[in-house]
Amino acid sequence: MRIATVRGRLAVLTPDGALDVATASGGRFGPDPQTAFADFDAFRAWAGTAGGAAEPFAPEDLGPPVPRPPQVFAIGLNYVRHAHESGLPVPTQPLVFTKFPSSITGPTGEIELSGDTVDWEVELVAVIGRRARDVSVADGWAHVAGLTVGQDLSDRTLQNAGSPPQFSLGKSCPGFAPIGPWLTTTDELADPDDLRVVTTVDGETRQDSRTSDLVFSVPELVSRLSRSVTLLPGDLVFTGTPEGVGLGRTPPLYLRAGEVLETTIEGLGSMRHTLAAPTGERARA
């Protein structure tokens, strides 16, 4: 099943187009995409048998499938080869930071750069479907509503400012957490633990790896996070980026205004964004 935000409303995608949930359910489920996670088990059961007239839609009609996540977790150095290119040891426990929810945006459109050191980071994003506290690894997938494509855009100058540096502000500028194009439930995937992840810039491949290289898998992350915090329905977990980031090149290579950033994950779809020059105070800095 694929769940989407279409023209600002919750929809289930079918081969014929988008089925508006509020209309098709007779008001049982509302139009707000975030409400699908209030009782995701009930929503999924209804959506599996839902019928009605589906409407065509364009990629530009799609918004973030989870527009207002209660919490957004992100994991650093969670691919073996990315740790190697960073010159750091492979972590023995997840390195956790946050991307603030105000950075969430949809799968198409324009993203304003914050400066001249903004990096790309393709990420598999897990969406929590059930409240999770002290969950076992074996039960991790059962608490995931589905998966979506994400980019952890990162202003490296801001990320590494200060001593010690902090990550969250440099990764939370407006538009720095695009997700989409929709949420896909794991039953649609042959192996949700092994998906190809790709970033291209102006058609040039910058990252090309597989989620089987994750240090901590999705169910492991759900389990470990839930030991410390309560995971809430609709939370996002950005699971980390593979090798190939701009910071790891010699010399470093960063995104520039006018470039087109495309992000694809096997079985989950693609996002496409155009990068724009900084405006306002950032442009004058």
UniProtKB/TrEMBL annotation:
It comes from the Bacteria. Keywords: Hydrolase, Metal-binding. Pfam families: FAA_hydrolase (PF01557). Gene3D superfamilies: Fumarylacetoacetase-like, C-terminal domain. One of its GO terms (molecular function) is hydrolase activity. SUPFAM superfamilies: FAH. InterPro entries: FAH, Fumarylacetoacetase-like_C, Fumarylacetoacetase_C_sf. Residues 72-275 form the Fumarylacetoacetase-like C-terminal domain. PANTHER family: FUMARYLACETOACETATE HYDROLASE DOMAIN-CONTAINING PROTEIN 2A, FUMARYLACETOACETATE HYDROLASE DOMAIN-CONTAINING PROTEIN 2A-RELATED. Belongs to the FAH family. This is Fumarylacetoacetate hydrolase family protein. It comes from Kineococcus gynurae.
